[in-house]
Specification:
Length: 360
């Protein structure tokens, strides 16, 4: 129970259906920890998992008459999500912290807690569907009915055991219908806005967060300054740190030319930021590692799938095949814009998630 309308509505729905429920909230980050540091706002408005959200979740549990517990996982969240997020940016990559959180914490930890209290399954407010396919003897993760709320991109790391013990009751609902259900169940937060920001980055400014977080650790951002170079190797300027850039970025490059320039790539080892024109952003292929398969046990030969390279990306047709142990190559039918190392590549066969991995 995150304190939002989705998970609260799920709890109400399941209670109405006769399930025996226990409400659980993961306390992941102290929202006041960096408040007031340079660039950091004083409030946590607009973010998920805030202290106000915990209060809202508790009120919903009281309204429904179900037991409710807060599980403190702040230390593990910092080790498994926040620190990797910082290190990825400092190495010139662009991480996806919500996927790391799902993979390492939300589902793994909630299922561990469920076992400890004797619960058979967990239910969440994610917009996704899962079902067992007896022909394949596998649990399948599928896109939801509300395509605009599809969260399967962030769930590609779920294991078969996790999927077998998870319910996604909102998979067949549209968001407006969920709010209607919340009102019908008498939930006071039926009109509560959705969270829009990464929970541990107030204001959404990751650059300011890096400064504030490292200062909190008694550290400073390491010197990753270097050269701005074109795709043919010409040095055209200097930058103050590779963590200030991501592939596809146009603004803030610090150089002026007769035509727009974009970040094409980041060479962390040499602290180079490669820039070029819009056409240089197009990639015919990508490589991914740390793979997880869902609808298939492993990939044999070549498979034609649709590939999503970031959350808001329209999946693109490609051929995928293994290029070595735990390494995959995808060849797109049409070149794709701003394939970004550190992001996830998720593979779809129609509505089903085949699997996914991390772009190299």
């Amino acid at each position: 129970m995150s304190g939002g309308v989705d998970s609260s509505t799920v709890a109400a729905m399941l209670k109405a259906e006769g399930y025996s429920l226990v409400g659980l909230t993961l306390q992941l980050w102290n929202q006041r920890r960096l408040a007031g540091r340079p660039g950091m706002p004083e409030t946590s408005e607009g973010r998920c998992c805030s202290l106000d959200d915990v209060y809202d979740a508790r009120r919903v549990a009281e309204h429904l008459g179900i037991p409710y517990y807060v599980v403190n996982q702040q230390e593990r969240f910092e080790q498994d999500v926040v620190k990797p997020f910082v290190q990825e940016y400092l190495s010139g990559r662009t991480p996806v912290p919500c996927t790391l959180c799902n993979n390492h914490l939300k589902f793994a930890q909630l299922l561990d807690t469920a076992r400890q209290i004797g619960a058979e399954r967990i239910a969440t407010g994610h917009y996704a569907r899962n079902e067992y396919d007896p022909a394949r003897n596998r649990w399948i993760l599928k896109r939801p009915a509300d395509a605009s709320k599809d969260q399967t991109y962030f769930l590609f790391g779920l294991t078969q055991e996790q999927l077998s013990r998870t319910l996604f009751p909102l998979g067949n609902y549209k968001k407006p219908d969920v709010r209607t259900l919340a009102r019908e169940q008498g939930l006071a937060l039926a009109d509560k806005p959705d969270s829009q920001e990464i929970c541990f980055i107030p204001g959404g400014n990751y650059k300011e967060f890096l400064d504030a977080y490292l200062a909190d650790q008694g550290q400073t951002i390491p010197d990753t300054s270097g050269e701005l170079v074109t795709t043919n190797g010409e040095v055209i300027g200097h930058h103050e740190g590779i963590h200030n850039f991501t592939v596809g970025q146009r603004k803030g490059l610090g150089v002026a030319t007769g035509s727009p320039l974009y970040v094409i790539g980041i060479n962390g080892a040499d602290r180079e930021v490669v820039v070029g024109g819009s056409d240089d952003l197009l990639s015919k292929s990508l490589r991914a590692t740390r793979l997880n398969w869902i609808s298939i046990p492993h990939l044999d030969g070549e498979m034609r799938v649709q590939v999503k390279i970031r959350h808001r990306h329209e999946p693109a047709w490609a051929r995928v095949s293994m290029a070595g142990p735990d390494q995959l190559v995808a060849i797109f039918d049409q070149p794709q814009r701003a394939v970004t190392p550190g992001q996830a590549a998720v593979f779809y066969d129609g509505e089903a998630v085949v699997g996914g991995g991390w772009i190299q």
